[in-house]
Design brief:
Elements lengths: L5 E2 L5 E3 L7 E3 L3 E5 L9 E3 L7 E5 L2 E6 L4 E5 L4 H7 L6
Parallel strand pairs: 1-3, 2-4, 3-5, 4-8
Antiparallel strand pairs: 6-7, 7-8
C-alpha cells in the first residue's frame, strides 16, 4: 500500500494498511483495522460526525457509536495511544 493512500469503504471492512502513514476512512458499519499505528502516522478519517464510546478488551480498542450503527475494532492498541494522537475522535 502506498503511504498516505486512503483505505476503507462504506459498510463492513477489514483493513490492513501498508508500511507508511495510512488514512483510514470509515463510515457506518463494522470495521476491523488490523494494524492501526498512530506513531507511524496512521489516522482515522470520516466525513460524518460520530460520538464514540471506547472499550478496551483483550489488548484491543473497540469504538462504538450505536446511534450511527458504527463499530471500529482496532487491534493491539490502547485508548491512551489513540487519545494522544486523535483526541478529536472523542469530542
Amino acid at each position: 500500500m502506498d503511504p498516505g493512500l486512503p483505505l476503507g469503504v462504506k459498510g463492513d471492512s477489514t483493513i490492513k494498511g501498508g508500511r507508511g502513514a495510512d488514512r483510514i476512512h470509515f463510515s457506518s458499519g463494522q470495521d476491523q483495522i488490523l494494524d492501526f499505528r498512530p506513531q507511524r502516522g496512521d489516522r482515522l478519517i470520516s466525513n460524518d460526525q460520530f460520538s464514540f464510546e471506547a472499550t478496551e478488551f483483550d489488548g484491543n480498542l473497540i469504538l462504538t457509536d450505536s446511534d450511527n450503527k458504527t463499530q471500529i475494532n482496532l487491534y493491539n492498541i490502547s485508548l491512551d495511544a489513540v487519545l494522544a494522537i486523535q483526541p478529536e475522535l472523542f469530542s
